[in-house]
Amino acid sequence: MPLHFHKPNGPLDDAIKDIINMVGGIREPGYIREMIIAALKAGQEDDDKADLKLMNTTLKEMRFTSKIFGPYRHIKKVTVFGSARTRPDDPVYQMAVQLGAHLKAAGYMVITGGGPGIMQAVNEGAGADDSFGVNIRLPFEQKSNPVVEGNPRNIIYKYFFNRKVAFLKEAHAVALFPGGFGTLDEAMETLTLVQTGKRDMIPLVLIDPPGCTYWARWLSFLKSELRDNGYISDRDFNLFRRVNSVEEAVAQINHFYRRYHSLRFVDGQLVIRMNTPLTPEKVREIREAFSDILVIAGDIRCSGPLSAEDNEPELNALPRLVVDFDRKNFGRLRALIDMINSD
Q1: What are the tens digits of pLDDT across the range 253-274?
Q2: Alphabetically, which GO biological process terms does the record hold (predicted)?
Q3: Are 81 and 186 in contact (CB under 8 A)?
């Protein structure tokens, strides 16, 4: 029997509807119908047990991720990466403890990989009640640290790609200490998603402890090998900040949300929601400074909520800036957000 997502499936649709009604409490039956059909289509099309196992585990892990993070969606969270091998007697470890404490004091929760080293330090600083552990099953090194062990906000994943989704999907900011392959992987993953617009803009902070040149040398490599060979542009360096202290790291994150609240694309337009309105003079400045990132004959203008935003009534009171953005220059978009946040 051929199955369709967007065409009727006869008695099967009736059976799915009956199942949904029997279970009860399904708030988005359209999506659930498609998920059930996707599972049935996979069963028809793929006889590879390993493929089906991967799909099955991924759905379960993503479902559990949403369940755990769901009650805390109203609280901003900072994902922190760094080496699992950093020892407690290392000054960098103590700096990570301070970062966790400062973030908690500023009203943030923290997300770490839930393991030892920098991850444990940040969880210690924030405390168990304000920590998430997003862990991975490994044959070495990556056991849950004592802060998140047994914590209902400690999730252990089988697949790295599901874990990476949780790290960035739930984050309102990302901070990185020096680390190994995993830390560099997450730095480049975050940059790639933000640079291509596959992730809403968030502050990305690279923390070089005093006397450390880890991120400085990484930045030098980006300039000499990537920028100078035309693989990236100067605008891409707007997407992150390098700092040397915990206070500066938290200040960068706080400043990003000083006026900026969130963004959403509506019918091809970029809608930036703000905590406070802009003056007409400020809007004119922004329009003049960022005409280069607009579509042909595009504009930047103030607005109230658009009709397509009706599904977010809790944001109706926020003033908007509507930008006819070309969806290419995300480094410049970050500079626009910085200008929104400036006096």
Answers
A1: 999 999 999 999 999 999 999 9
A2: cytokinin biosynthetic process
A3: yes
